[in-house]
Design goal:
Layout (H helix, E strand, L loop, with lengths): L8 H27 L12 E2 L2 E2 L8 H49 L15 H50 L5 H30 L5 E4 H11 L1 H6 L2 E7 L3 E4 L1 H17 L6 E10 L2 E8 L6 H4 L23 H11 L3 E6 L5 E8 L3
Parallel strand pairs: 4-6
Antiparallel strand pairs: 1-2, 3-5, 6-7, 7-9, 8-9
Length: 366
């Protein structure tokens, strides 16, 4: 924004300090006049000694005191003005030095460099609180930008794969006109379906991060039952038992997004489970002013280091592998985004016996 040039804050503070100092001096002189000089008579006083009038004894009257006091008061006011300007300029510069560092850091960040930090020394005050908040904001922005870059790179790779496969299939069909068209059509449909699923997942992730949804009261326990019922055929196919339990758990948000979040969690719990006789437990309940949804499953043992990476886009279980039910690799990324959009949080904890426990905490509805 273009602004007309104006006086600096340092100059304004300097003039303010000098003005207050002059005002204090003027008030002091006024006090001297009101409570001292006004009670001195202005007439010439008669003088006398023990033996009668003493013409050598001088007693000043009000006019004499004023003539002696006025020049020195003017000199004192000039001194206060100079002292206020010089001292105020130095003091304002020292006070505004942290603000100059914050301004420099802001300009550095505006050029795209987010690694710079202010790190003001000293005890806490308003400027240091501002600097610490700015450093925290830069750290979050740097992490967010790095995450977005990784996401863009992964999304480009994932979207390029089905397109490359489609081009290869079309090249093969062009070079071999006698090839069975039914097989080509089936494979193209599968690749196209995967590309559509990936695009829809990316759009859902963008919608959740943009928080462009209407809020309403939602019962997480009913959402959990709906998601479990929807995925029951998949669980039966993979011989996994799904158990749901809980109480009425009201929260506020988008029913569609919360259902998608729960469906993703249950789907991941079913897919990444034991080959046979696996278990998925879905629990909903209210706890200390929060609506809590917990999904845990059996499976292979996971390390804390691996668990910390599962919310990254396109991370599929222990390895970046695919199967017919693996999805597009955005399940937990979408879950985390939906939880943040609802002012909540996501916690992943590896189970000691194997498998994973996922806990989503959302604000409870009033």
């Amino acid at each position: 924004m273009d602004r007309a040039p104006g006086p600096s804050v340092r100059l304004k503070l300097t003039l303010s300090y000098a003005g207050f100092l002059l005002l204090a001096g003027a008030l002091l002189l006024a006090v001297v006049w009101v409570f001292l000089l006004r009670y001195v008579p202005d007439a010439v006083l008669g003088t006398s000694g023990p033996r009668g009038p003493d013409p050598g004894l001088f007693i000043p009257n009000r006019s004499d005191l004023q003539r002696a006091f006025a020049p020195r008061a003017a000199v004192a006011m000039v001194f206060l003005l100079v002292f206020g300007l010089v001292g105020g300029w130095v003091l304002a510069g020292r006070m505004l030095a942290p603000l100059a560092r914050i301004t420099d850091a802001t300009r550095t960040a505006a050029t795209g460099s987010l690694s710079h930090r202010i790190r003001l020394e000293g005890r806490g005050d308003e400027f240091r609180e501002l600097a610490d908040a700015f450093d925290a904001m830069l750290a979050r922005l740097e992490a967010h930008v790095a995450q977005q870059r990784r996401f863009a790179a992964n999304a480009s790779h994932e979207l390029r794969t089905p397109l490359a496969i489609t081009r290869t299939l079309l090249d093969v069909a062009r070079d071999d006109p006698d090839r069975d068209g039914g097989e080509l059509d089936e494979r193209l449909r599968a690749v196209n379906t995967r590309a559509i699923e990936l695009t829809e997942a990316l759009l859902l992730l963008s919608r959740a991060e943009g928080r462009s949804f209407t809020r309403e009261q939602v019962d997480l326990s009913l959402v959990a039952e709906e998601a479990a019922e929807t995925l029951l055929p998949l669980a039966e196919q993979r011989r996994v038992t799904v158990e749901t339990s809980g109480e009425i758990t009201p929260t506020t948000g988008s029913h569609a997004l919360l259902l998608q979040m729960t469906t993703n969690l249950v789907h991941n719990a079913i897919v990444h489970n034991l080959p046979e006789r696996g278990t998925v437990r879905v629990t909903a309940g209210a706890h200390r002013g929060s609506a809590v949804l917990t999904v845990e499953n059996t499976g292979e043992e996971l390390t804390p280091e691996l668990t910390a990476t599962l919310t990254e886009p396109f991370q599929r279980g222990p390895e970046r592998v695919r199967s017919s039910h693996e999805g597009v690799g955005l399940g937990l990324a979408i879950v985390e985004s939906i939880a943040r959009a609802h002012e909540g949080g996501l916690t992943l904890t590896p189970r000691a016996a194997g498998g994973l426990r996922v806990t989503v905490r959302l604000p409870a509805a009033r």
